[in-house]
Structure formats: structure tokens, C-alpha cells
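Contributing: when you submit paired examples, paste them exactly as shown. First protein:
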Amino acid sequence: MASGFLKIAGGTVYDPANGVHGEIRDLWVADGKIAAAPSDPAAQPVSLLDASGLVVMPGGIDMHCHIAGPKANIARKMRPEEKRAAAKVRRTTATHSGTLGSVPSTFATGYKYAGLGYTTAFDAAVPPLGARHAHEEFADTPCIDKGFYVLMGNNHYVMRALKDREPERLQGFMGWLLGATKAYGVKAVNPGGVEVWKQRQAGNVASLDDPVAPYDVTPRQILRGLAEAADALRLPHALHIHCNNLGLPGNWTTTLQTMRSLEGCRGHITHVQFHSYGGEGDESTFRSQVAPLAEYVNEHENITVDVGQVLFGKTTSMTGDGPLGYYLHKIYGTKWFSGDVELEAGCGIVPIEYRDKSLVHAIQWAIGLEWFLSVRDPWRVVLTTDHPNGGSFLAYPQIIRLLMDRTFRTDVLKTLPAKVRDRTGLADMDREYTLSEICIITRAGPARILGLKQKGHLGPGADADITIYTPHENPQAMFELPRYVIQGGRLVVENGEIRQPENGRTLHVAPPYDRGVEADIAHWFEEAYSIRFRNFAVDESYLE
């Protein structure tokens, strides 16, 4: 078997999941997997990649982004001015053409993720009726493995099961829906609030205990019910939660209550930066409340977070939180799209801009960094921008530099409004991330949080997703241009050029469930849906 091996020789390996922190080692690859070294010392590989003097890590994993499905496609169509101004992605003998901007086209998304050293990405919010669309776009997103979380936090069947106090029926529905949509996990966006928005103009919930008509259940009940169902089904990833009151001053109390409501259950709080605001609704009181939230996370191992870091510049807000989209539209006065998805979900899309001269935006920037520097265990905090909401995933190298270089971080902070230093704790934070910690928050950590045992590490049996960097004193320069990127054992990127842009796999789950629930689900479909039950499920052919 040694004759089929690729050997990556002499690299400085960072593999925190296996306790390796910058050791010079060889890696062997066979059949798309990391392999044990051949027992015969005279065995020679078919291919040899000399990694001497280079840094070797597992491929990056973006566990929360928006790259596929109806919402992403509408956002692309809404921003022609961005497409015209952005650099062109031109066709080559190996690649398709594409467009950039804050929401790149499908092919460009795959190429740019791979070019950054990322080999896996998860779309964070797909309505069940949009699942087939998402899979069709995944088929046109090369170079990376991908998956998505299906929206359930405002689903009428979920709320009906909770009203009737039938947790087994909710578990059955969740298991069926995951299998039918070929999703990887479950997402709750502003639970209950989106349904209220769909019922009346400017509607929303204000607290976890506001009843949601017509089922008279509360966001707290929705959160708890979904989290318990996900745990009962033993899903690899916890309930993925976009808390209520995102973006509103004073929302940190809602976030803390959400965390407390999950006692005894797993929960992942996503883009937590947007949920960590103090104040009373005006700029004069807006401030960070990271400290009490991070302390809760530090003391409760059932909670994990990704940050949703804000970067300065223009981008597009696209969210499954319809009332948030309207709120941003009123602030910016720009064009706005709002869409309702039958009895399932909704969305809002708005062009936005984060300005470094804005005190509020500068505080948001600082809050994200506070989160990275406040969570003591790097295995429980993940680097994201909520692409494109906080900024493009292409800005990840800049965030890495901000975390590894305190002097650079301080220099940037000095360019921002002076009150940022009074209203956040960032100026007093001395911590600098190590390369091993960066490897954790971009690779090993998200793999563990997602339950992806075959990813995020370089041990035998792992997927051969490998990124090789040229060391540089400037971490941003190092992470912007990997020397080599290997995905599934194939050389995908070499010195910034796409070599083998083959499609990756779609990651999904199909947990066992009580199939007796299907008759009730089918009856509900025939009464309430625009399509027939038998036509709803995504066929296996979409995964080929």
C-alpha cells in the first residue's frame, strides 16, 4: 500500500487535537485520509511534498456562514453595484468565472475558501423548503466539504408539539426533517420572534417569556424543547442558537437568560458579539457587556460560542431574523428585502456599512475581540464573522493578526473613537493567541463542537484536509496565502492557484426516530403546505 501514499515531509505540524504543537513531523496520505506511516522503513511514496520550513495544519472549518440557498441568492441579486466594482474571478483552464462582492457567486465562494486554507464550511440558516435549492448551490461550490443547519425555531409543527406537550412527537419531527432535508444540524433564529413578525407589522417578541400566537408557547419553551430534542436524538452538534433581540442595546440580559435556559442541555450561541450589548437604546449608553456573559461561558461547559467579528467596511446583512432586517433597513435607509417562508421561517436582507468613525460600530468591533480574549478555553470559542453579516470570510487573516499581535491591536484601537476604551474592556487585555490556539479556533475547535470526528486533526483516519503555510512575522500575511491546500487528499491550491477544483462532499445526518410520527406530519402537510408531503424530501441524488 505504500506505493499509493503521498508523503508530506518535514513540516512543522500543529495538531492540537492530538497534542502536537509545532513539532517537525512527516504526514502520510492514502485514499483521501491521513494514514499511519508504512511499517517498512524502505517504503517510498508515489508523491513527495517537501514541507521543510513550512507550517502544517488541518484544513480550516467555517462553522457559521451564509453561502447557499434562497437568502444568499437573493442577496447576490440585490447587490449588482458590488459585483461591478469588485475584482473579477476570470475563467481558467481549471476554473469557472465568478463574481465577488460581499456575497460571492457559488464557484467563487469555493475557490476563495480554498485559497484561504479552508476546506469545510456550513451555511447557518436554511429553511426546510429551501433545502433543495441549497443542495443545488452546494453542487456548484467546489473545493470544500459543506453542510447546513435547518431552521426550526419558528416552525408551526414545533410550536404545536410544544403546546400539546408531546416531546416525543417533536423529536420524531426533528429526526424526520433532518433526514428529509439532508441537513447537518438544527438552527433556532429569534425563536418565536420571526413568527410574530410574520403576523403583524413590526412585530417581534421582547423577552423569552412572551407568548407566541396561536400556540401560546414562549421563546424559552421553544429553545428548551429544541435543545432537549437535539440531545435526545444524539445529534453531533448542539442546537445552534441565534438569540432573541440581536443587535439591540441591552440585549445581553436576553443572551444570559438564553444560556441559563439551557441548563442540562448542550447549546451553541452563534455570532455572540451581536448579543453582548449594554445600554438603553441610544449611543450615549451603548457599551460592552462581554464580561458577565464570558464568565458564564467560562463556568458552564455545556455552552459554546462563535464570535461573529465585525470588520470595518461595506457588506450585506442577510439573516433569518425578519424583524432584524427591518430594523437595519430603518437605520440605514437602504434597499431591503423581507421574505416569509410559509409555516417555517423568514428572512431579511439589507446592504450595510461598518464605519470606523462610528462609536457604535467601533464598540461592536471591540466587543468581538473581547470575546476571543475573555473565553479561557479556546476549544469553546470559534472564529467567525457570520459571513457576510459582520464582514467577509476573506478577512479572517486580519482577525488572526489582531489576536496574535497586541501591538497591532492597540494601534488599531487608537484610531477609533476614544470612548471605545471607556465602554469596552479591550484596552486592558494583554492576551496574545499562539499558533496552536489559532489552529484550535479555526480548525480543531469547530470540528469538536460540530462532532466531526474525521476533521480538525491530522491523526490516522482523519480526512486528508491539510493547509500548509509559509511562516511570516506578520500573521495576516501568513494566513492570507497558503503555500498548499489539500482537500480530501487532493492538491487543491498551490501558491494561490487552483489546481484540482473538484466538488467536496455534503455533510448531513439522518438520526433514527419513531417513524410513527410521519402520518401526522403528512396530514399537516396536506392541510397547510403548498406542496405535497411526498414531494418534499430531498432525494439522495442531490448529494452525488
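Second protein:
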Amino acid sequence: MDSEEYSDSDSSYSDFSSESDEDASLDDARDWCRLDEDNLGPSPPRFPFTANPGVKVEIHSSSPLEFFGIFFDDDIVSFIASETNRFAEDFIENNELTPSSRSHNWKDMDSSEIRVFLALLILQGILQKPIQKLYWSQIPYFYTPFFGQIMSERRFALLMKFLHFTNNATIDTSNHPQPGLRKIYEVYEALNRKFKSSYIPECEVTVDESLLLYKGRLVFKQYLPKKKSKFGVKFYQLCESSTGYIWNSLVYTGRDMPLWQNANNYSSTTNIVMTLMENLLGKGYCVTLDNFYTSPELAEILITNKTDVYGTLRSYRRGIPQEIKDRNIKKGEIIGFQKGKMCILKYMDKKPIHMLSTIHTIDFVEKCKRKKKSNGDIEEIKTKKPKAVLDYNRTMGGVDMADQCLSYYPTVRNQQKKVLQEDFQAIIEPERVECICTL
């Protein structure tokens, strides 16, 4: 896109509507104009992409261990070892232990032992067994000698018991930036910073929610019936569309969730997207959203920050033309309205599809579909669909791709302490995705 074709003001795009003229005023550009399918102008141009995507750290080899070390570096590992030792000492000092307590055998751990412990947990996701003690079982059909050769079951159980990610004595809930994450906040934020500084995503990014399985007691536990886990901790994630790389994330903890500093009276979904996108604004990114987040309000804010957006839309959102809501159309038909750079369309497939886009109009694209006949012959069927719908299907799967990577090798097992099931997933699981995506 040549720079001279682009203007900072979204009002300059009013000429893409079939019902506007070159002399349209700024006020006219702020009104919705009906698009004529038979007399369409070009689609609104994208904002120029000025970021420099790619890996931003020095890499000496392509081994998974090196990629893991980029995110889980010496500082983070040393911090976890220090806090685990502190918690174990406080526990032993402040509690009356029974003579048979395994805590009598505690010895301070170091960074190398933390790495071994994490490696065994991740390996349990590859060699899946229903309960943890079976990894040290001597029963022939459960026997996996590697675990016992690396670490005894008693030592592993002690590390599991005392694993800790913060100093309990320094936690001030009243002044904490996110009290719901106080037990893991330092490590979680350090990893989030690593994810953002180690890699810059390509132009197309996706925002969606992810659910990490957790069935214990938790104030902010969510129930999402359409997700595979159904119960658990909800994450809002910004991922690269093509790879599923998790570039930024927010853990839903209720009202204490830190959101966009410039938020005024915007909706919560607008604030979530702007919080995740904050460091990518003004660089020409294009974010794909589902109907939970998309709204004219959000689109206008993103346009002022030189960021494009498209996604499905709920028909009752404020600011949508009334005719889009009321008009009945037949299968294969489309109607659309444009205001400046923003286009809202309604397309009838099996059911009505509402979409908002700052880079599309209501143009169709021909698509070939192959169908196998009963006699074995291949028949090519040509169909037409709106380009906005096809682009949405192509780019929306970033978060789903990350979830798919996590589902192959789950790390949580029965008999783990509950806080580990919650904390370990929030800390380690996203990092495993990053290692896969950057390979």
C-alpha cells in the first residue's frame, strides 16, 4: 500500500460507499451509507504495517530445550527455587510435625533440581497415567524406570508439597495490582514480558478466550459449556493468527483484573481488547475477533490508533444500522452499510451472519469445493462467499491452535496439590505453546 493512498482520518474513506461523493463532508462520513452490491468501490485500504515481526532473541540451535530456556530463564528458575525453600522452612518452623512426617526429610533445592522437577512434570504429559504415583510403580505393566532413576518419589512429592512462587509475608492484598493472582503474580508477569520481548507477531493477530481445566474451589472459576474443559480458569489471549503464538494474555479474576489505562466509560469487552493490544497499537496490525468482543465502539477506537479489525458481530450491539437488524434476506444475499472506514454487513448462509470490518466491503470471492461422487469421480463445485467471511475463517483460529497444542500433553494429574493444578497451568502451559510455535 503506497503511503500517499492513506489518510489518518477515517472520513477519507467515505468515497468507498456507493452513495457518497467526493465532496462529502466529515459529518456525512459519520453517517451510515447503504452499499450497492452492483456498484462497489474498492475496499478500504489497510493501515501501513510498520512493525518488525520475528524472533528478537539470539538463538544458537533449534532444540526445544533452548526455546524453553528463552522464556524460563535462570532468573525465573532461581526465584522459584528461593521461594520454595523459603516456604518449606517457614512451614517446618511454624508447624508441629509428626514423627513420621515426610517434611523431616526436606533439603533445600537449587535451580538445577527445579529444572529436573519441571522436566518430569512435562514428561508426565507425554507418558500419561491416571495418577501420579504410578510413574514410580514397580508393577510391570506400569513400570517406567526413568522417573525413579532421575528423582525418588519421596523427593518429588516433597517438591510438589512445597513448590511456591511468591513470598507470603510480603503480600499486601489491599495494594496488590491483581489480588486474585497474588500467589503467582511475579512469575506470571515475568513470563508475559518474556513472551512479548522475545517475538514480534506478524500483521494478523487474534483475540479470544481460553479455558484451563480446574475443578477445585476458586472464586473466579468459570463455566464455559462450549469449551472442552467446561470448568476452569479463563484466559483472554492475543495470539498470532498463523502460528498460535501467545503474545499477551490476561487471567480473568473478576473486578480486580487490570485493564486498559485509557479506559473511560467503554464496555468491558472493549477494555479487554485494548489492554491486550496496547503495545501493538499504531503499527498497522489487524485483529480478528468473535462476536463477544466486536462492536462499532471498539472499531472506532482502533481506527484512531491505526489498527484494523474485523469479526463477527452481535446484531443488538449499539450503533448498528436499524435496517441491518430488521431486514430479512434470502440465502446467499448480502446487505451492507459503511461509515468512514467501517463496514457492517449481514449475509445469509444457513443462518444470518453479521460482521464488522475496517478492510472489507460486501464483495464476494469465488471458491471451488471438491465433492466425491458415489462412482468415485471428483466433482468441482464453484460457490461464492463474502471475502470478509473467508478471511475471518482463515485468521480466527490462533487461540484454538494454542489450545490444540496444549491438549496433546496435559501436565495436571490427580494427587497433585490443588494450588499446583491452578498455578502450574497458568505459568507453564502457555510457555509450552511458545516453544512449539517458535520451533
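If you have annotations for the second protein, write them as plain sentences, like these:
Confidence is low (pLDDT under 50) at residues 1-29, 418-422, 435-439.
The radius of gyration is 26 Å.
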